[in-house]
Amino acid sequence: MGLAVVSQADLGLLNTFGISEHAERLVAVESDGQLRDALALARQHDWPVTLLGGGSNMVLAGPVPGLTVAMRSRGRRVLERSADSVLIEAEAGENWHQLVGWTLDHGFHGLENLSLIPGTLGAAPVQNIGAYGVELCEVFDSLEALDRGSGQLCRLDRSACRFAYRDSLFKQQPGRFVILRVRLRLGTCPQPRLDYAPLAAAWQATGLRRPDSRVISELVCRIRRSKLPDPVQLGNAGSFFKNPLLPAGQARALLLRWPAMPHYPQADGSIKLAAGWLIEQAGWKGHCQGRVGVHREQALVLVNYGGARGAEVMTLARAIQQDVAEKFGVELEMEPQLIGG
Ligand SMILES: Cc1cc2nc3c(=O)[nH]c(=O)nc-3n(C[C@H](O)[C@H](O)[C@H](O)COP(=O)(O)OP(=O)(O)OC[C@H]3O[C@@H](n4cnc5c(N)ncnc54)[C@H](O)[C@@H]3O)c2cc1C
Q1: Closest Cα to residue 64, out of 123, 17, 12?
Q2: C-alpha span between 298 and 125 (Å, rounded)
């Protein structure tokens, strides 16, 4: 079948947490045909399948059984142009940040606030990636996926993907779909989104008057580099917990006790709290526990100081969850996917 399946492959360099667990078998696929062959092989042997993009939103809790399929398809194209928008399509294995750069090079606007998010395009819809006031769903048109249940290709539009804050159909029905390629609708004129205060301040400081998506992208990269540890130097998976959404009544009760608590009213009446603030108030910021810890400057980011196992990360994560639940009555939900073990 021409597939190069590697046995007992170390995934240490294939996940940004730098957790050195093994995949029982690993195969990289670059086309729909190779993907179908890999899935057929797994079916034939009754192996469970795990999909791997850039490994930037997962915690490896132990060896990964069965077949791990690394999505490595490449390709991007313009499908349609109109006076004010453009429809682009790219393959799941495309690196997200490189795709953002490509859109900016072509004068397409809309992805600049999502610059420098690690990982692949194919995983971006899984958690509806978001940053600096923009979420993927806002520019999302549709995607093509392989439904592993029926074996059929399907096209899913925005409503079918059931996007929500760091959530989608693909998290709700894990393992069912393999995302093959994604279509995004972008603008041909800049429409800067500067709701996030530090980004607005950085833009103001440039003194520029004409909106410039490339400059905004560079500012986003600069802010991100100053706030988030680089996984190449310090293993991490970005934000470890989602910002909790609370019913208004519960949030207001907390605000009576902690008036300085950051809170963001949502369109549906719920109130979003900052998980990082809760963790910091509970005293965890900078906490070290053996080979893992909470980042010194960013309480929402758990880090691997070197050689940590997934179990150590999860022990720390659960201790934080329990403590925050006791102190604030708020359940923190983990953002990365727990894989293997
Ligand atoms: C330093 C850092 C900063 C980050 N900042 C942000 C941020 O600002 N905003 C944000 O939203 N996220 C952020 N993240 C999280 C992460 O980058 C994103 O979630 C990203 O989209 C994950 O892509 P990936 O290819 O690495 O996915 P992986 O970690 O490889 O996979 C994540 C999940 O998607 C599944 N999957 C992968 N590919 C496919 C596919 N083709 N079809 C179906 N399922 C698939 C996997 O099985 C797994 O369940 C950050 C992470 C890091 C390390």
Answers
A1: 12
A2: 25
Contact yes or no for 301/313 (Cβ under 8 A): no
Could you give the percent of the chain with pLDDT greater than 70?
A: 100
List Cβ neighbours of 329 (8 Å cut-off, separation of 6 or more). Answer: 250, 254
* Ligand 1 nearest-atom number relative to CA 229: 1
How does strand 130-131 pair with strand 85-91?
unpaired
Return the exposure string of 274-285: e unless at least 16 CB atoms fall within 10 Å of the residue's CB, then b.
bbbbbbbbbebb
The pLDDT score that the predictor gives to residue 275 is: 98
Say what the pLDDT of residue 2 is. Answer: 80
Catalytic residue selected from 25, 72, 166, 309: 166
Mean pLDDT over the full length of the chain: 97
- Identify whether the C-beta of residue 181 lies closer than 8 Å to the C-beta of residue 91: yes
Q: Ligand 1 — pocket residues by CB below 6 A? A: 16, 50-58, 71, 92, 117-120, 122-124, 126-127, 129-131, 170, 177-179, 228, 231, 236-238, 337
Task: Give the integer Cα–Cα distance in Å for 332 and 273.
Answer: 10
What is the position in ligand 1's atom list of the atom closest to the CA of 339? Answer: 49
State how far the Cα of 51 lies from the Cα of 120, in Å rounded to an integer: 12
By the 8 A CB rule, do 1 and 67 touch? no
> Which 3 state secondary structure label does DSSP give 304?
strand
pLDDT band for position 341 (cuts 50, 70, 90): confident
**Closest approach atom of ligand 1 to CA 57:** 29
80 assigned to active site: no
The alpha carbon of residue 226 and the mean position of all alpha carbons in its chain are separated, in whole angstroms, by 19
Alpha helices, H only, 127-230: 169-172, 197-206, 213-227
How far CA 161 is from CA of 172, 209, 225, 341, in Å, comes to 10, 37, 31, 28
